[in-house]
Amino acid sequence: MFAALADPTRRQLLDQLASEGPLTATALAARYPMSRQAVVKHLTALAAAGLLVGERQGREVRYQVVGGGLGQAATWLSEVGDRWDQRLDALQRRFKDSSGP
Amino acid sequence: MFAALADPTRRQLLDQLASEGPLTATALAARYPMSRQAVVKHLTALAAAGLLVGERQGREVRYQVVGGGLGQAATWLSEVGDRWDQRLDALQRRFKDSSGP
DNA sequence: CGGATGTGCAACCCTGTAGTTGCACTGAAT
DNA sequence: ATTCAGTGCAACTACAGGGTTGCACATCCG
Known about the structure:
2 copies of one chain form a homodimer. Chain A has 101 residues and is an alpha+beta fold. In chain A, 66% of the residues lie in helices and 14% in strands. Chain A has 5 helices and 3 strands. Chain A has helices at 2-6, 8-20, 25-29, 36-48, 69-99; strands spanning 23-24, 52-57, 60-65. Chain A is elongated, with a radius of gyration of 21 Å. Chain A starts with a helix and ends with a helix.
């Protein structure tokens, strides 16, 4: 899932879909200097990571962002951040204790 | 930077450093089924992404987490999330308007 | 000093994957 | 029915990156 976010193109794709709403692979490919299939691969990767869903409408497929997906990443980030903050706090407390009045 | 977080090993490494405090590359390598150099490469990648710093003490180098680094990732996530939420809100409003009482 | 321990650098496989091209299939329009 | 736009699948190339090994350099301890 972080692997899906690792590629800059995929982040851009996600960004565009988030701000412009559902689009088709062909429409997106027109905005990037790469082939349609390349874009499709990226979209598939993002969908596999649970960040997108593709909905078929006639002969086209509109991809749109799934809101909850990013939450997991955010959760992990804050967990590690918290652990590190706890260590920082502990160090600061110990420092205060040993140098206190 | 997301690329740095993409590898599971690197996330584990970050995790351990966040919860156990500064460690050397050799000490970390002892806990992983890979060579020391492999671990060093990961640590270097994390340091290049601004998530770690290595501090030399005599002949060893202790790596420790840099708190602010994760903030950037969190910021990006929340930005994209917000944009998507805005679109959702706009859609819901429009839907309410067109089907309202 | 000499040996042990920890680090740094470089060259080298090997797998994964981003990107391409080509072709077949399906839905819509004339 | 024919044509056109959009999609899907598969084979192929090429490059990045994870991992290894080998050796040289620095530092601590006897």
